[in-house]
């Protein structure tokens, strides 16, 4: 595969390096940022090319820009008459469907989306963890996408284009909102007198233990704590003491925990005592 990169950010640079290692040919890169190109060239010695040079020379074109720029790139390629029949245009957005590249109905290109389900802090970090990363694959040539992901050392998952926003929302909940939950827990520890820097350090092993349980036993078995036990009095105590700004968040999470708790007990052939279940639902607003 001869490929080109438009947008020399972390993802584009890491993809170029890994695909080259897998035996594919990187023809070059096009980027507006001189600093991004200098960083790119520090990892892979390829020329910066104008679109007129890059696009006709490749059979796969990766658009690894910010989401809002992706359709603008496609429009620019059309405006410059840089549309190569049969070429595959690929973007790496988690929230946008591959069809965002099809800015005209009759474009003779095939569109594909490959989204790495991972948070990359730097190019170095991306190169360390790209192998083993799960990818959402969606578009007109999903088999090619699956092959590319495997060449990257990744694990492909085909997703529905019509529901891709929900896929991305799930990724945001699992990654970004995990940091938000940690912040909420640190706030509560601080209210209890533990300095914030100590609070995070003390919470991380607990969070890592939960992640380990998720990996080891999965859902819903990894759920522990007062709602899993059906301890309504503990939940009431929490709600009595919580700062008002956190109450509704706690209740929403608690209702989801109660769903998991019911599933966990069902697998074990058990159920919550009716009085206990009603009390928990009443406390949590369910």
Which helices and strands, and how do they pair?
Layout (H helix, E strand, L loop, with lengths): L1 E5 L3 H12 L3 E6 L3 H10 L7 H4 L5 E4 L6 H10 L8 E4 L18 E7 L6 H7 L4 E6 L2 H10 L3 E4 L5 H11 L1 H16 L4 H22 L8 H4 L2 H10 L2 H24 L6 H11 L2
Parallel strand pairs: 1-2, 1-3, 3-4, 4-5, 6-7
Antiparallel strand pairs: 5-6
Helix pairs in contact: 1-5, 8-9, 11-13, 12-13
Brief sketch in words of this structure:
The protein is an alpha/beta fold. It has helices at 10-21, 34-43, 51-54, 70-79, 123-129, 142-151, 164-174, 176-191, 196-217, 226-229, 232-241, 244-267, 274-284, and strands at residues 2-6, 25-30, 60-63, 88-91, 110-116, 134-139, 155-158.
CATH superfamily of the largest domain: NAD(P)-binding Rossmann-like Domain
Q: From the 3D coordinates, which CATH architecture of the largest domain would you assign?
A: 3-Layer(aba) Sandwich
- What order do the strands of the largest sheet run in, or round the barrel if closed? 2-1-3-4-5-6-7
CATH topology title of the largest domain: Rossmann fold
Into how many domains do the coordinates divide? 2
Class by SSE composition:
alpha/beta
Which percent range fits the helix content?
40-55%
CATH first level of the largest domain: Alpha Beta
For the sheet with most strands, the description reads: 7 strands, mixed
Number of helices: 13
Radius of gyration: 24 Å
How much of the polypeptide forms β-strand, as a percent range? 5-15%
Shape: elongated
Q: Oligomeric status of the shown chains?
A: single chain
Low-confidence stretches: none
Q: What is the typical, i.e. mean, pLDDT?
A: 97
N→C terminal distance: 54 Å
Number of strands: 7
Order of helices and strands: EHEHHEHEEHEHEHHHHHHH
């Amino acid at each position: 595969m001869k490929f080109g990169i438009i947008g020399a950010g972390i993802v584009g640079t890491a993809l170029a390096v890994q695909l080259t290692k897998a035996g594919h040919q990187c023809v070059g890169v096009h980027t507006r940022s001189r600093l991004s190109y200098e960083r790119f060239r520090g990892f892979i010695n390829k020329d910066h090319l104008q679109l007129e040079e890059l696009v006709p020379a490749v059979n796969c074109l990766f658009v690894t820009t910010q989401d809002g720029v992706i359709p603008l790139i496609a429009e620019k390629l059309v405006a410059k008459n840089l549309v190569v029949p049969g070429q595959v245009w690929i973007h790496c957005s988690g929230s946008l469907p591959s069809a965002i590249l099809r800015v005209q109905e009759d474009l003779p290109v095939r569109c594909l989306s490959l989204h790495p389900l991972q948070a990359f802090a730097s190019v170095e970090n991306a190169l360390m963890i790209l192998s083993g990363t799960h990818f959402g694959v969606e578009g007109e040539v999903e088999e090619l996408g699956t092959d590319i992901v495997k060449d990257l050392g990744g694990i492909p998952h085909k997703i529905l284009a019509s529901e891709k926003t929900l896929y991305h929302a799930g990724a945001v909940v699992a990654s970004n909102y995990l940091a938000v939950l940690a912040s909420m827990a640190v706030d509560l520890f601080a209210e209890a007198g533990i300095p914030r820097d100590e609070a995070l350090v003390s919470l991380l092993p607990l969070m890592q233990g939960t992640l380990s349980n998720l990996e080891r036993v999965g859902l819903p078995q990894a759920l522990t704590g007062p709602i899993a036990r059906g301890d309504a009095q503990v939940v009431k105590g929490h709600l009595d003491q919580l700062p008002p700004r956190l109450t509704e968040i706690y209740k929403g999470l608690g209702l989801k925990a109660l769903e998991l708790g019911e599933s966990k007990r069902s697998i074990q052939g058990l159920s919550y005592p009716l009085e206990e279940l009603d009390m928990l639902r009443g406390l949590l607003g369910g």
